[in-house]
Amino acid sequence: MSAVQEFLDRLDYPMYVVTAAAGEERAGCLVGFASQCSMVPVRFMVWLSTANRTYRVACSADFLAVHLLSRAQYDLAEHFGGRTGDEVDKFADVAWHEGPAGTVLLDEAPDWFVGRVERRTDGGDHVGFLLSPLEDAAPELRAPDWQPFRLSDSEGIEAGHPVPGA
Q1: Three-state secondary structure of the chain
Q2: Residue 50 counted as domain residue
Q3: What is the pLDDT of residues 2-39, one digit of tens each?
Q4: pTM over 0.85
Q5: Total domains, the chain
Q6: What's the confidence (pLDDT) of residue 163?
Q7: In a domain? residue 2
Q8: Which SUPFAM superfamilies match (predicted)?
């Protein structure tokens, strides 16, 4: 194992569910590669796997929704991370509603923001979608022990699509 891989294996970053809508198509997936990348103006980068249906729908979308899950939402993370939209409608069994700019918002994930896609950047087996936040929502009150869903919490979720090169 390389030193860089050992470094990366020590990271325990938050994971998100990203949803995309274009025309009549809806898609969503669990995303581990995402971060704020600018303070002024505020920008957020989401990296989507090119093997993923969400990526294909997002290529035609002008806006994406990014949902922050809590550690208690393993089932929702597994639903969006352990299935492929090529085989199932991930939204058939999940409560959702239309959000700003025609986005798909998950009722079970009250922490979200919608961002305008400003640019797409090739990163290899993932493409980065640079988002300019348009609108957001967060619960007014959180339990004092609230924690975001992290990479370590995803243990046991097998990717709906095979991981490239694995």
Answers
A1: CCHHHHHHHCCCCECEEEEEEECCEEEEEEECCEEEEECCCCEEEEEEECCCHHHHHHCCCCEEEEEECECCCHHHHHHHHCCCCCCCCCCCCCCEEECHHHCEEECCCCEEEEEEEEEEEECCCEEEEEEEEEEEECCCCCCCCCCECEHHHHCCCCCCCCCCCC
A2: yes
A3: 888 788 777 788 999 999 999 999 999 999 999 999 99
A4: yes
A5: 1
A6: 58
A7: no
A8: FMN-binding split barrel
